[in-house]
Design goal:
This protein has 184 residues and is α+β, with helices and mostly antiparallel strands. Helix content is 30%, strand content 25%. The chain has a single domain (12-175), classed as Gcn5-related N-acetyltransferase (GNAT) (Aminopeptidase). It contains 5 helices and 7 strands; from the N terminus they run αβααβββαβαββ. Keywords: Acyltransferase, Transferase.
Length: 184
């Protein structure tokens, strides 16, 4: 029965990027989880390795597992077939703002739009808590991430929270509105 639609997304062969993005929506489940599971720790270690390939140790600001388990942090994991392939967190500040942290997608899931989906879920959590301003810190050499953040409406800003200006950080912010961020 050629030419028909796939009955199971996992069985579909995809030829273009749009089809791959549709598949990630069907295959990835994004949910709140504890960050201290073995496969999530491996994902965070991959994120650290990615950062340390680009920046010296003094330019690495990734939150450790203990920090991600803090009561003022909500941590999400994206899984496909049970495997952890992406993550992200929100750190809630007492002033009603929040910081997005540890946004990372594994090599196996890059190009599927998973980073945008994780961002959208984190922004939804923030909006549900009444947060109107989100911040994030990333490195200027993380060009794919910076491009995604800009497309989602984030703009450069100065240091926030406990960060100090440094050559390894790019600080960004976005005001949340009733409209979701542009996911394309």
């Amino acid at each position: 029965m050629g030419g028909g639609r796939c009955r199971r997304a996992a069985a579909c062969r995809v030829g273009n990027r749009g089809d791959r993005r549709l598949m990630t929506e069907a295959l990835h489940v994004i949910a709140e989880e504890a960050p201290d599971r073995a496969d999530v720790i491996a994902l965070i270690e991959a994120s650290d390795a990615y950062s340390l390939e680009r920046y010296p140790p003094e330019g690495h600001f990734g939150t450790d597992i203990a920090g991600l388990k803090s009561p003022d942090v909500t941590f999400l994991v994206a899984r496909r077939g049970g495997a952890a392939e992406g993550c992200g967190a929100v750190k809630w500040f007492a002033d009603g703002t929040a910081e997005l942290k540890r946004i990372f997608v594994s090599d196996a899931a890059r190009g599927l739009g998973l980073g945008r989906r994780i961002m959208a879920r984190l922004e939804t959590l923030a909006a549900e808590r009444g947060v109107t301003t989100l911040y994030l810190e990333t490195g200027p050499l993380n060009t794919e991430a910076v491009t995604m953040y800009r497309r989602l409406g984030y703009a450069e800003c100065g240091p926030f929270a406990d960060y100090a200006a440094n050559p390894y950080s790019l600080f960004m912010t976005r005001k949340l509105t009733d409209e979701p961020s542009n996911e394309g």
